[in-house]
Amino acid sequence: MNHKSDTLVEIRNLGFSRGERVIYEDISLAIPRGKVTAIMGPSGIGKTTLLKLIAGQLTPDHGEVLFDGVDIHKVSRSELFELRKRMSMLFQSGALFTDINVFDNVAFALREHSGLDEAIIRRIVLMKLEAVGLRGAAQLMPSELSGGMQRRAALARAIALEPEMVMYDEPFAGQDPISMGVLVKLIRELSDALSLTSVVVSHDVGEVLGIADYVYVIADKKIIAEGTPAELKASDDARLRQFIGGEPDGPVPFHYPAADYQKELVGGVN
Amino acid sequence: MALIDAVARLGRAAIGQVTGMGRAGLMLWGALVAVPRPAKGMPLLIKQLYVVGVQSLIIILVSGLFIGMVLALQGYTILVDFGTEESLGPMVALSLLRELGPVVTALLFAGRAGSALTAEIGLMKSTEQLSSLEMMAVDPLRQIIAPRFWAGVISMPILAVLFTAVGIWGGHIVGVEWKGIDHGAFWSILQASVEWRQDIVNCLIKSLVFAIVVTWIALYRGYEVVPNPEGISKATTSTVVQSSLAVLALDFLLTAIMFG
Amino acid sequence: MLSRKVEIWVGLFLLAGIAAFLVLVFKVANVEVQAGNSSYTLYARFTNVGGLKVRSPVKVGGVVVGRVSQIELDPERLVAVVTLNMDGRYRNFPESSSLSILTSGLLGEQFLGLTPGFVDDESVMLKDGDRIADTKSALVLEDLIGQFLYSMGKKD
After folding, report:
1. Which of A254, B168, C34, C134 is 20 to 30 Å apart from C80, CA to CA?
2. Contact A93 B134 (CB under 8 A)
């Protein structure tokens, strides 16, 4: 094993389309090891899709995704499963298994892959739950938890196997300010304490700029800006200003592309 | 032009159907070729046997009893005109073994367990539980689809046999206890006309075929669901409709092969 | 992970399935477990078997002593050949025994009535593969009614 590069994930000239609709045209980005990288952009541009491309759940039309130097879309299924043991994803909905309790949810991957005996698994699970502050909720079912607690339980599950990289899909969406604060704190702490590589996909500008080390902004199928939070705040790019400032209209149009308004009103049925 | 359009539509529909069947086949293949892991697979299977089999028991037993009783009542009113009410036994037993047992069980199963399977898997998909399994390097086909498939295939023949047995008992209640057909005559004529190979084995074969088809459709509809509430409700409906039609069509085919 | 309740229920479910299957096999289809060579086969020819079926009982004085296992047409003599599967416990039927097709009740099921013949010092007992020579065919209802009407007509 020669020296590890600073980049854990590298995306080169990635293109992806769903049916006729082009989601990404030509995207290249690098995710540094041990840092919090944020990917921002307006809703509906397929940020979740990007995470699924990184995880190998979707296959791109062209381009490559290198995870620690290995092209994730060229390996066999079993090699892909091996790579996936080194990464994990926190889904927007939490995606806890609804038919088993919180403890079993967190223990799930450990029981599947670690081969450790139950006494050790129990100890690890309790430690992970303690880290997200839900040790007391171990025996509850996911449906008995609030949305924020579900996401924290899912976070405990995501870090159970001590992955190298955690991908967060919209971790702040639909959370009250307190849960949001808790999650921001957790992501930062976990990243620092376990030297995790974190990828946060979000459109919550304030929170993201607060925790990210490096930010990519995606809009209109391309990366429109990148840099540290400070650099982005200082930028005078119009589209970036609109997104960060939250202005309703601007270079990113308010209207969905449509035929000429007057013509359509007057013209009637074609 | 309209004709060409129609041909094109037909072609598109056919391609869609074949693609769908191919995808369904791949799903089942992926679920079943996986190396079985007894230590981990067994608890999953037992849990699904409970959900799919045990929880369908009430509806199967109650329906079986009533259908047996109705069959006997209707049969009695007809047979009594010819003075051959002793033949009620074979009438009830053969109707149940050859047709009603496997078919009605499959239809009830599609409504009770099939729709539940579709909804459950659809919900798992739409809440990203399936993706989440994949991210944990666990194959959802092996973890979710395979145990449910086997549970369905094991449960339905058992349910069909229970349905038939309870139905014959219902026929006995109406014929012997209520209408006063001689107990001995009822059973001896019944026993003389039911044959092990022709009737009981065929009942099991039919039931097994229906089990595979219904469970497969239910799982595929759930697995391929459009992940939103509307998609799940549509998928659940189409599970019941498609598996009912498939069961009735296959029943005709199997009956023609077995008794034709 | 699995609760005890689930395991017990699944166990009961499987047991109930097996029990129902056994009921169907032994109570409904009345399959008899035959231990080894405790049965023997006899043959008989009939000009008309009427409503006799495979698995119809063979009775002596109302007691079931065997069942019909096969009904075929002898291609040369053009008569029905009935194969009887006899219970091995009942072996002492003399060669002179006769077999007739009887009906239980007016329109009921048909069965074979075996009437044992006389026994003296010279009589030989029926053994496996033997043919019962003395047979009476089924009474066909139409023939009976025809005869009845004919005789009524003659009286007038």
Report:
1. C34
2. no
